[in-house]
Write a structure and sequence with these properties.
The complex is a heterodimer of chains A (about 425) and B (about 260).
Chain A: H1 3-15, H2 18-55, E1 60-65, H3 67-76, H4 86-92, E2 101-116, E3 119-128, H5 132-135, E4 140-143, H6 148-153, E5 157-160, H7 162-169, E6 178-181, E7 184-192, E8 205-209, H8 210-217, E9 231-236, H9 242-256, E10 267-271, H10 272-315, H11 317-325, H12 330-363, E11 367-368, E12 371-372, H13 379-405, H14 409-414
Parallel strand pairs in A: 3-8, 5-7
Antiparallel strand pairs in A: 1-9, 1-10, 2-3, 2-6, 2-9, 4-7, 5-8, 6-7, 11-12
Helix pairs in contact in A: 1-12, 2-10, 2-12, 2-13, 10-12, 10-13, 12-13
Chain B: E1 14-25, E2 28-40, E3 45-49, H1 56-63, E4 71-76, E5 79-80, H2 86-96, E6 97-100, H3 112-121, H4 128-141, H5 157-169, E7 175-179, H6 187-202, E8 207-211, H7 215-220, E9 223-228, E10 231-237
Parallel strand pairs in B: 3-8, 3-9, 6-7, 7-8
Antiparallel strand pairs in B: 1-2, 1-4, 4-5, 9-10
Helix pairs in contact in B: 3-4, 3-5, 4-5, 5-6
Classes of the chains: A alpha+beta (about 425), B alpha/beta (about 260).
């Protein structure tokens, strides 16, 4: 039997029991469409995470105390580890040792409650220098940034995140107002623009001079140079020099920390690219998980196909006998039943891709519990899903087909 | 045991030599065919009769290349088919013989034309067009020119059996095997089918072997072979059509 004849025979056999074929197909349609839709949602999440990180600027490099230092800090009970200091940050601005570094913005942190009149809210306190906003790609909505004069003077000035401003001052402009953070009075000099929807949401942040954070909020001691920082934000001169800048930073810090050649870094350098890769990896796992769950329904659909094919072989035993008697070889019977199974799963696959695409298309931008779902439709996923559905047909169709082909023609003809 | 046919054709269509076919049922061995030697020449028209369990159906399955002898030689049109593989047997069925069954064995959802086309689908070299042309010719030959597009359910038993005969004819084989072809038919339809088989023998020169328990059918053939317990108990040429055939324990049941 040639292929055309084989397919038309298989198709007409499928057509004789349309309801049954339709229900069997439905299993595959559900399986394939859920794979397509899940993958679209998963990829959408991945892409949007990447986009949000890229918003921060791809030339951003972050230095934090290394794992060892953090452990020490944990056992020591201190807040910030003392590994990175303001002097380290200053050293990184050196054009000779770190030529590929454009901007250095050290930060430390504190926490506390901000109180204005009867309103109060917890803040995510960040001690910064003037460069911080540029490094984190943030901008001022009204008022001004923390200046380096503020840092030198250890001024009690604060730039509020959008949400804090909303909570404490409602619609009023807070610039010039005085509020209390952890009992100390601060003058509001500026408010940041809302960054809702970004990964590192600063809307709950209160930015104050890094010196104020150290000496006033964290009760730190020592000279300005020795102020410990929780991280240093660095911008490379361009996206292309990020790797060079990273090497520069590493070299400078190792020198400053007097690390021997056989000693590990006591700091951790992360580029945006690293972050993107890490998050994409995590998201990738998520996508695979989603795909696998959907894949299980495809598997169940496949079992449905096998079940129906086995019933079909039993029902059509006599037909098989007739075909064998008039000259069909075993493989003709085998191919016919495999073709039926594959045609069903392939048809189901095509419908499933269409349904999955429709779901992904209309699901794009849908809101679930306030989260916007983004979907990304990828053509190659559709081809993979189709190939898998054909493979499912082959896999689950083979056994019934082998049973059909191995029937004894004499007994098959006698079958009622 | 061998009897020469009326026509003297050099190569016999069927040549069985000491053919046995044993079936194991538990520890018991049933000899369905017990050393059959038989020659059927080109152009013969043979009835095989016998009671249930006499082995005539087993013989039919063997002649039809659906089954293989346990021992002995079966030469079909000069080719020894005893040792052929499953695929080769299918080829032989496809090219050298046509089957007519008691219960017609048509595919119920297919039209008459499509049913007759079926054997052609399993032998290469036919386009859709040539298949349909051959099927039409075969249906015309059995007088069903008006029934191409009818499904089995829409036809009488006699018509269905004629579709079955057309299907057996469509590849123009020399040998047609019919297993109780009138078993499901009323007297009138039976007569039509017998006439059809006779015509195929006399007009088209086909060799025809019919298994039957119907004396009228046997009477209509040119040679009658009687079976009992896996052996041939009588083999005679029918000269006088009026001779009743009642001596061979032909029972009223259908063949096994």
């Amino acid at each position: 039997m040639n292929l055309t004849l084989l397919l038309s025979t298989a198709l007409s056999s499928i057509g004789t029991n349309k309801l049954r074929a339709g229900l069997t197909l439905l299993g595959i349609v559900i399986g394939v469409s859920s794979v397509i839709a899940m993958m679209a949602v998963g990829r959408g999440a991945q892409v949007s995470v990447t986009a949000r990180i890229s918003d921060l600027g791809t030339e951003l490099i972050t230095v934090r105390p290394g794992a060892q230092a953090l452990r020490f800090a944990f056992f020591g009970g201190g807040g910030n580890s003392d590994v990175l200091s303001l002097a380290d940050a200053l050293a990184l601005q050196d054009d000779v040792f770190a030529p590929d570094v454009r901007l250095v913005a050290p930060e430390n942190s504190f926490s506390g409650a901000a109180v204005f009149g009867a309103e109060n809210t917890f803040v995510n306190g960040v001690g910064i220098t003037a460069e911080y906003l540029e490094a984190r790609n943030l901008s001022i909505a009204s008022g001004r940034n923390i200046s380096n004069t503020d840092v030198q003077n250890i001024s009690n000035v604060v730039v509020l995140g959008f949400e804090i401003s909303e909570t404490l001052f409602a619609q009023r402009n807070p610039v010039g107002a005085t509020l209390k953070i952890s009992g100390r009075e601060f003058t509001v000099v500026g408010v940041m623009e809302s960054q809702e929807g970004t990964i590192f949401n600063p809307d709950n942040s209160a930015l104050i001079p890094i010196t104020t954070a150290h000496y006033r909020m964290n009760n730190g001691k020592g000279l300005v140079d020795s102020i410990s920082v929780s991280s240093i934000n660095i911008l490379a001169t361009s996206e292309d020099t990020v790797d060079h800048a990273r090497t520069d930073v590493s070299t400078v810090l190792r020198l400053r920390h007097e690390l021997g050649a056989d000693e590990d870094d006591d700091f951790l350098i992360t580029t945006q690219q690293d972050t993107i890769e890490t998050l994409e990896g995590t998201q990738g796992t998520f996508v695979i998980l989603l795909g696998s769950i959907a894949g299980i329904s495809l598997l169940v659909g496949g079992i449905g196909v096998m079940n129906i094919m086995l019933v079909s072989v039993t029902e059509r035993t006599r037909e098989i006998g007739i075909r064998r008697a008039v000259g069909a070889k075993r493989r003709d019977i085998l191919f016919q039943f495999v073709a039926e199974a594959v045609l069903m799963t392939f048809g189901g696959g095509i419908l499933g891709v269409l349904v999955g695409w429709t779901i992904a298309y209309f699901g794009d931008g849908a809101s679930v519990d306030g989260d916007i779902i983004e979907t990304v439709i990828e053509t190659h996923i559709a081809f993979i899903a189709l190939a898998v559905s054909v493979a499912v047909g082959l896999f689950f169709g083979i056994y019934p087909a082998v049973r059909a082909a191995s029937l004894n023609p004499i007994e098959a003809l006698r079958h009622e | 045991m061998t009897t020469n046919s009326l026509n003297s054709v050099p190569v016999p269509v069927i040549e069985l030599t000491e053919v046995t076919r044993n079936f194991q049922i538990g520890t018991h061995v049933v000899k369905a065919l017990d050393g059959i030697s038989l020659t059927i020449e080109q152009g013969e028209m043979v009835a095989i009769i016998g009671p249930s369990g006499s082995g005539k159906s087993t013989l039919m399955n063997t002649l039809g290349c659906l089954d293989q002898p346990s021992s002995g030689r079966f030469v079909l049109n000069g080719q020894d088919v005893s040792g052929l593989s499953d695929n080769q047997l299918a080829e032989t069925r496809s090219h050298q013989l046509g089957f007519v069954f008691q219960s017609y064995n048509l595919l119920p959802r297919e039209t008459a034309l499509s049913n007759v086309e079926l054997p052609l689908k399993y032998s290469g070299g036919y386009s859709g067009k040539s298949r349909r042309a051959a099927a039409r010719t075969a249906l015309d030959r059995v007088g069903l020119s008006e029934r191409y597009d009818h499904r089995p359910m829409q036809m009488s038993g006699g018509e269905q059996q004629r579709v079955g005969i057309a299907r057996a004819l469509v590849k123009n084989p020399d040998l047609i095997l019919a297993d109780e072809p009138t078993g499901n038919l009323d007297t009138k339809s039976s007569g039509e089918v017998i006439e059809m088989l006779r015509s195929l023998n006399e007009v088209d020169g086909k060799t025809i072997v019919v298994v039957t328990h119907d004396p009228e059918v046997a009477e209509a053939m040119k040679r009658v072979i009687a079976f009992r317990d896996g052996r041939i108990v009588e083999d005679r040429i029918v000269t006088d059509r009026a001779t009743p055939i009642t001596d061979y324990n032909v029972d009223s049941e259908a063949s096994e």
